[in-house]
Amino acid sequence: MTTDTVTDVFEEHRPVLLGVAYRMLGRVADAEDVVQEAWLRWSAADRSEVREPRGYLVRVTTRLAIDRLRQVKARGETYVGPWLPEPYVTDFGDTVPDTAERAVLADTVSLAVLVVLESLSPLERAVFVLREAFGYPYTEIAAMLERGEPAVRQLAGRARKHVEERRPRYEVDPVQRRDLTERFLAAAGGGDLEGLMSLLAPDVRLVGDSGGKSKAPLRVLETADKVGRFLHGAAQKGAVPDLSFRFLELNGGPALLVLSGDKPDSVFQLDVLDGRIQSVYIIRNPDKLRSLASV
């Protein structure tokens, strides 16, 4: 391959590699670092030994992500308050024409699922991502991870059961989620507590991620009364200068980006079921919002 061809092949597969790395790590910066390291491995590889570039690149990226995940877990990092993944801009565009496949990709990158994936071992997480998000057969996953196929199937079954037991139920319909997000914004911004409460499920949860670097609840809030009153009170505490709002697709669904001037202030995303809001996610850690400054 020429240098240009080597680059073109890598760039062709970059979105898939970033998707694998982000689902493994839940952090955009770490995922980009892993993909950059995969590029260095690819550019230095003996091309005569690479029979299938995509498989080679996914294998390298997965192994690098496993190593990075093990390092994070080994450091035993403490985090102030609830943890949520870093927001990830998703736009599958024309690359995923099948509606069912699009729904699977959106689900496996959702905030709710990524929070559950944090509790898996690195190998369980890798198998889950490769199998559930990208549909790799067990034989290929086994080869990528240098494990026997029976062991990989066992890892997959354990991971799938764990995720199914712990993730909250929600609708993936983007139209319904966008509609409820707009109504949520109107009610909260307009000080309409009654209207806001009517949108919330009785057992709604609010998860705020600030990392201790901005204002957000340091515990998960539960029940419509507590969540509704918190949101109503927060909206009444004074306007942020030059406040503006933008809708965009994050983590496979509609989200609300709040800007102060041209600087990201927070991200709101909702999980919806049966026409009611089941979960409210608020990300206010400035470190996690940097990648949205140029969106």
Tell me what you see in this structure.
The chain has 295 residues and is α+β, with helices and mostly antiparallel strands. Helix content is 54%, strand content 16%. The protein has helices at 3-25, 28-44, 53-75, 99-108, 111-117, 122-133, 138-145, 149-166, 174-189, 193-199, 224-236, 286-289, and strands spanning 200-209, 221-222, 243-250, 253-260, 263-273, 276-283. Strands 2-1-6-5-4-3 form a six-stranded mixed sheet. Strand 5 and strand 6 form a beta hairpin. The radius of gyration is 20 Å and the shape is globular. The two termini are 34 Å apart. The model has no long low-confidence stretch (mean pLDDT 90).
Give descriptors for this structure.
295 residues, alpha+beta, 6-stranded mixed β-sheet, 6 strands
Strand content: 15-25%
Shape: globular
Along the chain, the helix and strand elements come as: HHHHHHHHHHEEHEEEEH
Kindly state the mean pLDDT as a whole number? Answer: 90
Low-confidence stretches: none
Calculate Rg over CA atoms.
20 Å
Q: How many extended strands?
A: 6
Major sheet characteristics: 6 strands, mixed
Proportion of residues in helical segments = 40-55%
Number of helices: 12
Gap between N and C termini: 34 Å
Strand order of the largest sheet: 2-1-6-5-4-3
Structural class call reads alpha+beta
